[in-house]
Amino acid sequence: MQMNWIKRAGWIVVLGLGLIGLVWFAWPRPIAVDLASVTRGPMEVTVDDEAKTRVRHIYTVSAPIAGRVLRISHPFGNQDVSLHVGDRVIANETVVAIMQPTTPSFIDVRSREELQAMLAAADAAVKLTEAEVRRIEAALEFSQSELRRAETLARTDAISVRNLEKAKLDVQTNEAALASAKAQLDVRRSERASVAARLIDPSSVAAPSNPSCCIQLRAPVTGLVLKIIQDSEAVVPAGAPLLEIGDPLDLEVIADLLSTDAVQIKSGSPVRIDGWGGVPLQGRVTRVDPAGFQKVSALGIEEQRVRTTIDFVDPPKSWSRLGHDYRVIVHVTIWSAESVLRAPVGALFRKGDDWAVFSIKDGRARTTLVKIGNRNSRAAEIIAGLSEGERVVLHPSDRIRDGTAVQQRDVQ
After folding, report:
1. Nearest-angstrom CA–CA distance, 23 and 388
2. What angle do CA 87, 89, 94 make, to 5 degrees?
3. In the prediction, which pLDDT does 259 show?
4. C-alpha angle 63/66/68, rounded to 5°?
């Protein structure tokens, strides 16, 4: 009997321990969560977007006339015009480009035949005019001899005064006719040269070796070469852009912001500039354009954008490594305060039409409705519902309910 009692007691102990173990494993344990405190401190709301730097005043050197521009990055003759991006140029001194006349164009068969016929006609006109000149010269020589005889006879009163005057008139008339014929001969020779020039074959025209025949374009301002638009030798029309010159120290930032954000920005608003590879810089808004424009985003969405101009506040030595068309990130401040009650935005979630958080009270999560004001990507201004120092759950999962036991997650 005593042995049976001992066995029964042993089984009772085993069953009790098993029951205690089951209760232990079945008892709900606190859920590990990330917690954050509600604090009071400075806060600002910004409009964040990509932007790019831009030289404020860019001077584009263009071709003044149609012609052949020589390769800009290659010296021409004894003119050291070899320029590359980043080279410094001096106003009215540095030659930035050299232009030559264009070579004549090719002539089709019909046009060539027409020009050759015109050249033959011009040759005939020249010969005809030369013959006319010789005829008038002969007439002039005869009239001059007649005048000499008339003057001799007039001294002995052998002829009348009228005949003497007639001889003088003939000489003067022939002299005028000869001058007219010679001028006409020059016209015919010029017409022939014009037709012959139109027959010049472009393959027989060599590039001029004398730089004085060309146009030298000089830098309009002192600065650096920002961009060479027409680097290779080419025939360009009048007004074609060749290169751009500017001063990289005269830099500004251009941000194309959404129109819904631009309406909240005022001229003079402070700006934080980062994302350019250096320390954050300070700037301020100088202009918000009054007109917007449509821009298609990388996702193919049509957006209304407004160009916003930003100036640097920091001295140039802080951003001297920046250049033209560099990418930066701008954070334009549209609201700020020195001391507000704030909570992380990761703790907020929607409950109906209201905002709510899980605050921690006695180790359990309690649903707390809050009223928020301004917010940014990190924190939200708490107007009502929480007090300073309270702890809230960050990024609550679907396992968290009102009254759920929670504990701080260990950070390793």
Report:
1. 39
2. 125
3. 94
4. 85
